Amino acid sequence: MVYWNKDAIYALASYKILAWPVGVWPIEDNIFCSKMRYLFAIVTEIFLTITLLMDVYLACENSSVDPIDTYVVTSSAVLVFVKLTMLQIQRSAFSTCLHSAIQDWCSIKDPKSREIMIQHARAAKIISLSLFYCGFVSLMFYLLRLLPFVNATANERTFVLPMSCLFKSISNLQYVFISFYQVIQLLIAYAGNCCTDGMFVGVTMHLCGQFELLMIDFQQIARRKYKRKGGSIVEEFVVRHRKLLKLTANIENTYSIIILMQIITSAILICMTGFGFIISWHIHDTFMTMKSIVIMIVMLLQCFLYSYAGDNLRDQSEALSFALYDCNWCDFSPNDIRDLAFIMIKTNIPIRLTAGKFFYVTRATFTDILKTAVSYLSALRVMIEKQETNY
Known about the structure:
Elements: H1 6-19, H2 31-58, H3 67-89, H4 91-107, H5 111-143, H6 172-219, H7 221-228, H8 234-282, H9 286-326, H10 334-347, E1 354-355, E2 359-360, H11 363-390
Antiparallel strand pairs: 1-2
Helix pairs in contact: 1-5, 1-6, 2-3, 2-6, 3-6, 3-8, 4-8, 5-6, 5-9, 6-8, 6-9, 8-9, 8-11, 9-10, 9-11
């Protein structure tokens, strides 16, 4: 049983709320029930993907009203499958990161150190909760289809997702059951995407806080050495640094493929929803315009979340070497100076998270995606305006 104090609850409890229903909260006691929830979520998203692709293949007249919705939901379901599977495969490694974070919160005594950890936890919560709320608003746009006033043809049955071809002649009871199951599918897609991203930013920003605390200890190494009066303090710093490097490697192994899939999918969906935004803006479809804006915001937040956390982790790791150089190392013995030199060599290698081992994830990654999407949308807007003037 893992003990949580109030600070650990503040920093990590919001991620558990979404991760527990889909079975990917890695520090549960009942592993069997967790795997059952995971299998249910995976099977549900597989059914969602298959039914949507079948509806596209049948090319039903009713399902082609808004094909962008089909691509967005299908991509989200595929992302959930990849994210939950990677978290399940790396469950042991990622649970080590969460256990370490909870232990850090429960063992912290210094008020200044606690304040630094709170600052990083607050930044993670602001970003993750922004994603949670925007994702929930996007989910509500899909659920509004069940309301009669949304669809002009109230006599026809309206599904949450475009599946009119597959379910043409069904009874009222079957219609209620299918609609309810589609709501569950969307809720799992929402929880699976948001909980995965939230846990990443929460644990990564916590590691940033630990690197900052280690940097402060490096700056005060001379004072701590004199207080110790004997023995080598360098060993203590080496052990802490190696532990943080191991935790970072666990995050990298867990999220490398997830980040790659998320960036590729987000870039494509931003362009597609941007196209839908331009079309709906020209035809004065307010509902579609608002939905496109919210979806683009969600995709941008997901890319920004990974880029921001990865960039902060790199900056904090690079600051360790400068902190060592700024300490009073010249007053140390030759043996201690030699040991510090070896630590500086190790800290000169910055910690960087990668997307599938192909490229580093930094703020430049987010800006590149944003610039590419804006360029595409600008060219598309000019093309549509020219076609309107020709007609």
